[in-house]
Design goal:
5-stranded mixed sheet; 15 strands; binds pyridoxal-5'-phosphate; 4-stranded antiparallel sheet
Length: about 375
């Protein structure tokens, strides 16, 4: 197992003085620091079991049931499995579902943390292309399955794909679920961005269409704060004991203190207003970045227009070496991004592309930073 190219790059380009569009970071200025601090202090004062080992905290689970309802998914508390972030959810699902010698279906450009979670299982990776406007190519998924492949699961990010920023439409969601049922192949649906939508509510996740074949993964990292390290899986109740066994080997349990504090924060009804603030701020930042790209990037460049999440994916003329572009952008203009190749499956190409994060810079920084990046790019193209 190796560190992902992405995590290594982020460490390098996050030096002081660099205006970074590289990481997938929410804005710290928008963290609910005061309210969360108050919730934390209250749970500590109320009950010292906040610092004890303990079973998954039922009031938090009840709040997650409500959050899922907001995403259009009807679930029972017995179907919720608390994890230490979505990353751990992906890890335990990989360990539970992938047998030695097995295979997994995933997009050619995908969230690198899934690849890291799979590394210990070493499955055969079955790559699926993604259309920048409509998302995962469902015909390719169907072809693999029709040809006899029986992967351990299909991994998808239907809402605000990381790194591509694309969301898939309802028709594709329905077809994916139909394929999962027809061939008995589970879907792991990763949805950290579904509540961060900027053009009205996002469509319901795949889990709303099927309760038996879809493992839904949720996270508080992007809607509250990553340092909480709190996420969840919606799974069939029969599998919760098995997920528990796998998780116990990793960390015994997710911090009781965090579970109680987040549960308390949610019980106080603070999330809806907080989400509105995030959506307003990130929506304006997305618009600022789209406008800046139009103003400063060469006409040959094309990019996704995300309706949710934190990323825009830009494709450049094939001759552009994006690694060299990054090095020049950092050296000459002190601005950073992640070259597309960091997200490519082994053996796949991401083309000449870059991922830009818009959540962690102000509109003024975005306008300035994209103009600076455009200067280097126009010099090369
Ligand atoms: C698609 C996707 N899945 C999972 C994660 C990990 O989230 P967490 O912080 O909850 O572990 C991220 C984080 O960027 C992500 O983009």
């Amino acid at each position: 197992m190796k560190r992902s190219v992405l995590r290594q790059m982020i460490a390098v380009v996050s030096r002081p003085g660099i205006l970074s569009f590289a990481g997938g970071l929410p804005s710290p200025a928008l963290f609910p620091t005061q309210a969360y601090g108050a919730a934390l202090s209250e749970v500590l004062q109320e009950d010292s079991r906040a610092l004890q080992y303990g079973p998954p905290f039922a009031p938090l689970i009840a709040q997650i049931v409500r959050l899922m309802a907001r995403r259009g998914v009807d679930v029972a508390p017995e179907q919720i499995f608390i994890t230490t972030g979505a990353q751990q959810a992906l890890d335990v699902l990989a360990k539970l579902l992938v047998d030695p010698g097995g295979s997994v279906l995933l997009e050619e450009r995908s969230y690198t943390g899934m690849l890291q979670a799979l590394a210990s299982r070493q499955p055969r990776l079955l790559p699926v292309p993604t259309d920048l406007a409509t998302g995962i190519n469902v015909d390719t998924v169907a072809r693999y399955l029709a040809s006899g492949e029986r992967p351990a699961f299909l991994y998808v990010i239907p809402e605000a794909h990381n790194p591509l920023g694309v969301s898939i439409g309802v028709d594709k969601r329905v077809r994916l679920v139909e394929l999962a049922r027809e061939y008995g192949v589970p879907i792991v649906e990763d949805d950290p961005y579904g509540l961060l939508s900027y053009d009205g509510e996002a469509p319901s996740p795949l889990r709303a269409l099927d309760a038996d074949w879809v493992f839904y993964v949720g996270s508080f990292s992007k809607i509250l704060a990553p340092a909480l390290r709190l996420g969840w899986i919606v799974a069939p109740p029969a599998l919760i004991p098995q997920l528990t066994v796998v998780k116990e080997a990793v960390d015994l349990e997710t911090s009781a203190l965090t579970q109680r504090a987040v549960g308390h924060f949610l019980e106080q009804g603070q999330l809806p207003a907080h989400l509105e603030r995030l959506r307003a701020a990130y929506g304006s930042r997305r618009d600022a970045m789209l406008a800046a790209l139009k103003a400063s990037f060469p006409p040959e460049a094309v990019w996704t227009i995300p309706s949710a999440g934190m990323f825009i994916w830009v494709e450049l003329p094939a001759q552009v070496d994006c690694q060299a572009l990054l090095e020049r952008a950092v050296a000459e203009e002190q601005v950073a991004f992640i070259p597309g190749h960091a997200f490519a499956l082994p053996g796949c190409s991401a083309g000449a592309a870059m991922r830009l994060n818009f959540s962690n810079a102000t509109e003024a920084e975005i306008a300035d930073g994209i103009a600076r990046l455009g200067r280097v790019l126009n010099d090369i193209v």
